[in-house]
Write a structure and sequence with these properties.
Blueprint: E1 18-21, E2 28-29, E3 41-44, H1 52-60, H2 67-77, H3 85-145, H4 151-168
Antiparallel strand pairs: 1-2, 1-3
Length: about 170
């Protein structure tokens, strides 16, 4: 039996001059032209340079269309058109929506984290001031009693230094 896709009248081309429907059924590409019925070639996918003559020919075929469709096609025909532009634009729009969603998520997370940072900075400052007062009182008492430095005092001073350093970090 003769395979129809090997026939010279195959439903889709096997060269790189036309675009064909890919197996996913969603996009067209020259790479998808395999001679199968599924591929169904769509015509020249190179840039079409419109001039006055091609525009007149194109508009001749639009005579039986409604006025809104004619208006749209006339505007479309007045420009240099690249086949696949709409498909590429739609894909670009999908990409942009994904980027926008990711950006919104990141900004929301950052805003939430900034509130947490402000909360920690505020709580930390209260603890710092309290601890600063405690250290001052301990040093005063130690001096009056003739006691040297104690390990707990060093730990308190280190905690205040750590907080000061953390609080100085720029975001």
């Amino acid at each position: 039996m003769n395979n129809i896709s090997n026939n010279k009248y195959a439903p889709s081309p096997k060269n790189d001059k036309r675009g064909c429907l890919c197996k996913d059924g969603k996009k067209y590409s020259r790479k998808c032209c395999d001679g199968s019925f599924q591929a169904q070639g769509i015509g020249n996918i190179t840039k079409i340079n419109w001039n006055e003559n091609t525009t007149k020919q194109f508009l001749f075929y639009c005579i039986n269309m409604d006025s809104k469709t004619k208006e749209i096609l006339q505007k479309f025909a007045s420009q240099k058109v690249e086949l696949g532009m709409i498909q590429e634009g739609a894909q670009s729009a999908k990409n942009l929506v994904g980027i926008a969603e990711e950006l919104k998520g990141i900004k929301k997370a950052l805003a939430r984290d900034m509130k947490r940072i402000e909360g920690y900075a505020s709580d930390g400052m209260q603890e710092f001031k309290y601890l600063q007062n405690v250290v001052s009182n301990i040093k005063k008492i130690n001096k009056e009693m003739g006691i040297g430095s104690i390990p707990e005092l060093k730990a308190m001073e280190k905690a205040m230094d750590d907080f000061s350093e953390a609080n100085k970090l720029k975001i």
